[in-house]
Amino acid sequence: MTTLFTNIKELIQIRDAGITKVSGSEMAVLPTIQNAFLVIENDLIVDFGSMVDLPEINPDNIVDVSGKMILPTWCDSHTHLVYAGNRIQEFVDRINGLSYEQIAQRGGGILNSANKLNQTSEDDLYEQSKERLEEIMHLGTAAVEIKSGYGLTIEGELKMLRVIQRLKKACPIAIKATFLGAHAIPALYKNNREEYIDLIINEMLPTIAKEKLADFIDVFCETGYFTVSETEQIMQAGISFGLQPKIHVNQFTAIGGIQAGVNNNALSVDHLEVLTPADIAALVKSETMPVALPSCSYYLSIPYTPAREIINAGLALALASDYNPGSTPSGNMNFVVATACIKMKMTPEEAINAVTINGAYAMNLSNTHGSITIGKKANFIVTKPIASYAQLPYSFGSNLIENVFIEGKIIS
Ligand code: NIG
Ligand code: FE
């Protein structure tokens, strides 16, 4: 089936095939065509251009989108959207003065979510997670990475990864699974952390690899969680099972996790709220994508990742949601774009590049996602009538999405 979209006010993020990411000053450039057409055939983009060059074709459908813009769907390269229940009580506790760290130290935080998850059946977890996935699809996301890490037991971690596998099969959105057994040391291993790390490496990983349940390996490399040398040990074990690292680093403290990630060919290093000149220097010589999570900074009132420093150093930057129950209970990538512009001083062009082409890179999805490119998936957002694409972050609380197409089909 062929569908032709006509009179597109502006067709945004058009790229030739083979461009996998944009870095430094290239991030300020967002290629577009005004008054454009777009042709899709089944699940793929097959042609686009200026209306004056519209070829003679016989499509099955013609959709006139006068006044509206079309841009690629969001690529959210960092989420924990498979979780059980919520942490609303911790939210209220923080309002009343406790810090995120204090809540974690008294056994809340990640361990609270792990308790809840281990008491929830796989089917129930699947239903709760599917609802969140459907919500983000309506908000314009059509590729997402989802982590385990709220099990912290063999059964719990496998349950999470099996739920992710079921979501992959049931939903049109592209999903990548990341094994994050090293999210926190469970209470049971508080005085015996080597034993938990041994469990991750020698019991969880082999089973996960055998059942092909994960694409990537993650570690929360942070003071009070996993040290740099533990992170290296776990990344290397993951690599030996074919899982490329994508790691949590520099959220609260800079302890050398970025250098470790780069040395182990990490696909991405995520958070980076605290960044040293040595961290930036390590990234400059690498193919590792820095990923910022502005909704997490917003929700926890912690510093924003210094996007300008990163981009001015010539680096690429991706933005993701971090959707999770404790530090970012939102998977809204429209809010991510707006917050990046408003709080991190990224231009609309930089922010849109960061959540499309660079987000796809951070999930190894560059060949199929992240831009309007012939041969890529017909995944795109049709906006409501808007004045310019800068209105997307400008009208930050409004939903400016009229329709979302995933693999050529409208999400209703
Ligand atoms: O990316 N920083 C580590 N993990 C998550 C939050 C986990 C939680 O609080 O449940 C994050 O922010
Ligand atoms: Fe995270």
Automatic annotation (TrEMBL):
Residues 69-411 form the Amidohydrolase-related domain. GO terms for molecular function: imidazolonepropionase activity. Its EC number is 3.5.2.7. It comes from the Bacteria. InterPro entries: Amidohydro-rel, HutI, Metal-dep_hydrolase_composite, Metal_Hydrolase. Pathway: Amino-acid degradation; L-histidine degradation into L-glutamate; N-formimidoyl-L-glutamate from L-histidine: step 3/3. 4-imidazolone-5-propanoate binds at residues 87, 150, 183, 251, 327. Its cofactor is Zn(2+); Fe(3+). It is an enzyme of class 3 (hydrolase). It is found in: Cytoplasm. NCBIfam families: hutI. PANTHER family: IMIDAZOLONEPROPIONASE, IMIDAZOLONEPROPIONASE-RELATED. Catalyzes the hydrolytic cleavage of the carbon-nitrogen bond in imidazolone-5-propanoate to yield N-formimidoyl-L-glutamate. It is the third step in the universal histidine degradation pathway. This is Imidazolonepropionase. The gene is hutI.
